[in-house]
Design brief:
Blueprint: E1 10-16, E2 20-23, E3 26-28, H1 35-46, E4 50-56, E5 67-71, H2 74-85, E6 90-93, E7 100-102, E8 123-125, H3 129-135, E9 143-150, H4 154-165, E10 169-174, E11 185-192, E12 197-204, H5 205-219
Parallel strand pairs: 1-4, 1-6, 4-5, 6-9, 9-10
Antiparallel strand pairs: 2-3, 7-8, 10-11, 11-12
The structure holds ligand PMT.
Region (Phosphopantothenate--cysteine ligase): 11-221
Function: Catalyzes two sequential steps in the biosynthesis of coenzyme A. In the first step cysteine is conjugated to 4'-phosphopantothenate to form 4-phosphopantothenoylcysteine. In the second step the latter compound is decarboxylated to form 4'-phosphopantotheine.
GO molecular function: FMN binding; metal ion binding; phosphopantothenate--cysteine ligase activity; phosphopantothenoylcysteine decarboxylase activity
Amino acid sequence: TADADLAGRHVVVSAGGTREPIDPVRFLGNRSSGKQGYALARTAAARGARVTLVSANAALPDPAGVDVVHVGTAVQLREAVLKAAADADAVVMAAAVADFRPAEYATGKIKKRDDKADPTITLVRNPDILAEISADRARPGQVVVGFAAETDDVLANGRTKLERKGCDLLVVNEVGERKTFGSEENEAVVLGADGSETPVPYGPKEGLADVVWDLVQERLV
Ligand code: PMT
């Protein structure tokens, strides 16, 4: 990896997990810690890029030299990512975005009441930010990268997801005890829309991040 090979580039990274509010005290969320996205932001900054990190609910310190935008929900994440992507050379979606949100927000805490039927939460679809960015590139040659955390048929599901989302690269990581969600380490295969497959062995999330930037760098025009 050449030093500062991303100098003069603007990259956008999303990290963390969205939280979709149910009532003032509850939300639908996921186990993303933000560590993989923050590792991507740090490594890109170390390689000279201007970095915008859109962070959803990560309990991590803002990385030095990175513009951090804090968001809560998928709708807020979409707005922040689209805004930052307008002049970006690359967008990497490492965030775990909720596919659905509660159709209604209860302004008062939902109470347990014996005389009432069990409550039902109706869900509605959230926008698919990765698919939207891939289909409608803010600038020609913009490189778009997605992530997929899978539990089974990892490569086959990854390939299908890559095609469905329309991104250039998809980082497929298998959900496991000491990788993906929450841990310091990860292990992945990076699938390319050109048919390429780049395995990344188990190791620190920075290592995977550097491989992602290598693959992005090769595709930048
Ligand atoms: O944060 P850590 O604890 O370090 O964990 C890292 C991680 C496991 C969260 C990360 O490596 C990862 O895999 N992120 C994607 C999680 C996932 O399962 O994504 P998905 O399969 O639901 O979505 C696929 C892709 O579409 C992702 O790039 C996602 O950001 C994007 N997406 C999903 C839904 C949606 N409504 N809009 C989106 O843009």
